Amino acid sequence: MLIEKEILNERGIEFRNKIMELKHNGIKTEPAFDQLIGLTGNPY
């Protein structure tokens, strides 16, 4: 959670809003971050 907080602070409110939108649509937190950052593989 600390790393997620750091990423949210660095990327700004628009990134945070996109994460919240994905979560609202049923995507869990880690996969939402992976999707927006462009990481591949297992998000956990």
How would you sum up this structure, described in words?
The protein has 44 residues and is mainly α. The protein has one domain (2-37). It contains three helices and no strands. Helix 2 packs across helix 3 (29-37). InterPro entries: DUF4269 (IPR025365).
Give the topology string: H per helix, E per strand. Answer: HHH
Largest sheet: none
Assembly form of the protein: single chain
> Can you give the helix content as a percent range?
over 70%
Question: Can you count the helices?
Answer: 3
Unreliable segments of 5+ consecutive residues? none
- Tell me the fraction of residues in β-strands, as a range: under 5%
What number is the mean pLDDT?
94
Rg over C-alpha atoms, rounded to the nearest angstrom: 10 Å
- The count of strands amounts to 0
Distance between the termini: 12 Å
InterPro entries: DUF4269
Pfam family, one: DUF4269
SSE order and pairing:
Layout: H1 2-11, H2 13-24, H3 29-37
InterPro entries: DUF4269
